[in-house]
Amino acid sequence: MTIIDIIEKKKHKEKLTHEEISFVIKGMLDKSIADYQISSLLMAIVLNGMDEEETIYLTEEMINSGETIDLSNIDGVVVDKHSTGGVGDKVTLILAPLLASLDIKIAKMSGRGLGHTGGTIDKLEAIPGYQVELSRDDFIKQVNDIGIAVISQSGNIVPADKKLYALRDVTGTVDSIPLIASSIMSKKIASGADFIFIDVKVGNGALMKSLDEAKMLSQTMINIGKHFNKEVICILTDMDEPLGLAIGNSLEVQEAIDTLHGYGPVDVMELIVNIAALIVKRIKKIDIEEAKALCLKQLNNGNAYHKFEELVEAQHGNLKDMKISERVFSIKSPKEGYLTKINALGLGEIARIIGAGRLTKEDVIDPTVGLVLTHKVGDYVNTNDELVKVYLNNKDVKVDTILSCFEIKDEKPEEIPLIYEILE
Ligand code: URA
Question: Which one of 117, 179, 184 would you pick to mutate in the ligand 1 pocket, going by the greatest count of ligand atoms within 8 A of its CB?
Answer without folding.
Answer: 184
